[in-house]
Amino acid sequence: MTRFIFCTGGVVSSLGKGVTAASIGRLLEARGLQVIIQKLDPYLNVDPGTMSPYQHGEVYVLDDGTETDLDLGHYERFTGVNHTVRCNLTTGKIYSSVLARERHGDFLGGTVQVIPHITDEIKRHIKLLGRESEADVVIVEIGGTVGDIESQPFLEAIRQMRKDVGYENSCYIHLTLLPYIKSTGELKTKPTQHSVRELRSIGIQPDVVVCRADYPIADDLLDKISLFCDVPREAVIPLETARSIYQVPLVLEDYGLGDYLMRRLNLQGTAPDLGEWRQMVDRLLCPTKQVRIALVGKYIELHDAYLSVQESLLHACAFHDTRLMLDWIDSEALERGRIDVTEALEGVQGVIVPGGFGPRGIEGKIMAAQYARENKVPYLGLCLGLQVMVIEFARHVLGLIEADSSEFLPDGPYPVIDLMLEQREITDMGGTMRLGSYPCNLVPGSKAQRAYGTGSVNERHRHRYEINNRFRADMEAAGMVWSGVSPDSKLVEIGELRDHPWMVGSQFHPEFKSRPNAPHPLFREFVAEALKQK
Ligand code: GLN
Predict the structure, then answer these.
(1) Which helix (H) or strand (E) holds 497?
(2) Dihedral (C-alpha) 142, 143, 148, 150: value to the nearest 10 degrees?
(3) What distance in angstroms lies between residue 508's CA and the mean position of ligand 1's atoms?
(4) Within 10 Å of residue 413's Cβ, how many Cβ atoms?
(5) Among candidates 361, 380, 231, 237, which has minimal Cα distance to 299?
(6) Angle at CA 83, nearest 5°, toward 78 and 86?
(7) Residue owning the nearest CA to atom 6 of ligand 1
(8) Using an 8 Å Cβ cutoff, are 314 and 324 in contact?
(9) How many CA atoms are closer than 13 Å to the CA of 268, on its beta-carbon side?
(10) In a designed cystine with 451, which of 244, 326, 398, 521 is the match (CB 3.0 to 4.6 A)?
C-alpha cells in the first residue's frame, strides 16, 4: 500500500516547504525506499510556463517537457528521481479538466461543485501518481499558506485522503515559523499555535510540526508546541536556518524525523545511509579554494529566477572543493552603458550567460560574450547564452551580421537573432517551444564531448529559436565547432570555439540535470577551467 505524506505551510510563505518535502524524500530514500514528490499549486495558471520569473522564480523543465514550479528542481536534486507531468498540479489544470468534462456532458445534468467534483479530481491525481510511479511513499506539497482562499480545495482534498487511505498510510506535516522578537530576544510560538488551530478547523490534525527559525530553538518551546498543538514531542522538529539547503536532510535526520516517519507509517527499510550526502555537504561548506564567476542576466534582482543555475554551480564547486563567489551582472545595465563591461568582468574567472526571453538585455549579453571570447575567459552559455555567443561570433569574427541586420533592428522581437536563428514550429509538441528531453550526439574530441566522456546524451530544452543552418558552414570555417548536434544533424545542440580555452554554449539547459552528488559535466568542466584562471 502506498503511503502519503502531506506537507502544508503556515504563518508565512517562503519558509522552504519545497526543500523540506525534498529532504523528507531524501531521508526515506536513504532507507532504501522509493519516493516521488508532487506539488499542488493553488494558482489558476494551467502551468507556470507563462509566468514571469520575477513573480515565480525560474520555470523548471522535466524530461517529458512539463514546465513546472521551481520546487520540482529541489525534488529532483534531493531525490535523484526524474519526475513527470503527474508531479505538478495547479488549480488551473484541475478546473480545465473538470470544465472540459462538464462541456462533454459527463456529469449527466448534475450540478458541478467544488466539493465533490474539484476535490475528487485532486484526489484522483494524487492517487494516480501513487499507482503509476509504484513509489512506496508519495510526498505531496501543498503550495501557499494555510488560511489562503486559493488552497482550500486542496486542503479539503488531502483531509479526505486520510479517510480514503487510512490513518496508518497517511501523515500530515505542517511547517511553521517561530518569529524572533528583538526587544525581548525570544522566539514566539503563538503564530504556530494559531496556524495549527486553523488547520484543525478544516479537519486536519498535523502528525508532525516542523518549526523554522533564524535562531536556536530551546527545548521548552518545543515542549510548548507539543502541548498546545497536540503533537507528540518527538514529532516537533526544530529547523534552524541552515547555511546550505543541502544540510536540511541532515538536520531533520539528527532530530529523528526519518525514524519517526518509518514507525508512524509502518514502513520497512534499511538503516539510513546518508554518508555520501554528508561528505558532499562537508565539501560544500568547508572548501579550500575559491572561484569568481559572473552571471550576466536580466532577472538578477530575483536570484530565484536562476535557481537551477546557481545550484549547478554549487554542485560543480563542491566537486572541486571550491567556494563560489557569484557576481550578479545586469545585462540591461551593460547594454545601456550604466556599467562598463571591462570593469564588471575584469578579474572574474568565468562568465555564465543563462537563458532568457525577450529582447531586453540581449545586447548586454553579447557584450559579455565578446569580452569572454577576446580575453579568453571561460564561458558557459545556457540556451540564450549559446545564441548570444553565436551572434557575437558572427558579428565580430565573421563580420556577417552588421550589413544585413539593420532591417531587423527596429521591430523584430529579437533584433539580430532573427537573422542568425530560425524560429521553428514544434508542432508535434503541441506548441511553439521545443520542450523536454532530446538526444544530442557529441563530436569526438570536442571540449563538450571530453567533458561528458560519452558519445551521446539527452538534455532538456525550452526555447523557440534554433541556430540557422544557413550559417553553419561559414561559422565552422571561422572557428566555431558544432560539437553537439541532433541525431539527424539538423539541429545544433552545442557550439564551442576552437581557438579559446573553454567557450561552450548549449541550446539545452544542462542546469536541470545537475545533482549535488553528480555535478553536470558542462558545469564541472566550466568551473575546472575557471579555476585555471588567475
Ligand atoms: N528566447 C530564446 C529562445 O526562445 C532562448 C530561450 C532560453 O534561453 N530558454 O530560443
Answers:
(1) strand 492-497
(2) -90
(3) 9
(4) 12
(5) 361
(6) 135
(7) 463
(8) yes
(9) 1
(10) 521
Q: Say how many Å lie between the CA of residue 365 and the centre of ligand 1.
A: 13
List, for residues 205-220, the tens digit of each pLDDT value: 999 999 999 999 999 9
Triad 70, 71, 73: Cα angle to 5°: 70
Euclidean distance between CA atoms 73 and 80, whole angstroms? 10
User: What's the pLDDT tens digit per position in 125-174?
Assistant: 999 999 999 999 999 999 999 989 999 999 999 999 999 999 999 999 99
- pTM: predicted TM-score of the whole model, two decimal places: 0.92
Confirm if 324 and 354 have CB atoms less than 8 A apart.
Answer: no
Task: List, as one string, the DSSP characters of 52-120.
Answer: -HHHH-PPEE-TT--EE-THHHHHHHHH-PPP-GGGEEEHHHHHHHHHHHHHTTTTTTPPP-IIIIIHH
Ligand 1 first shell, C-beta below 6 A: 355-357, 383-384, 462-465
CB 88 within 8 A of CB 75: no
Is 207 within 8 Å of 173 (Cβ atoms)? yes
The whole-angstrom separation of Cα 14 and Cα 242 is 14
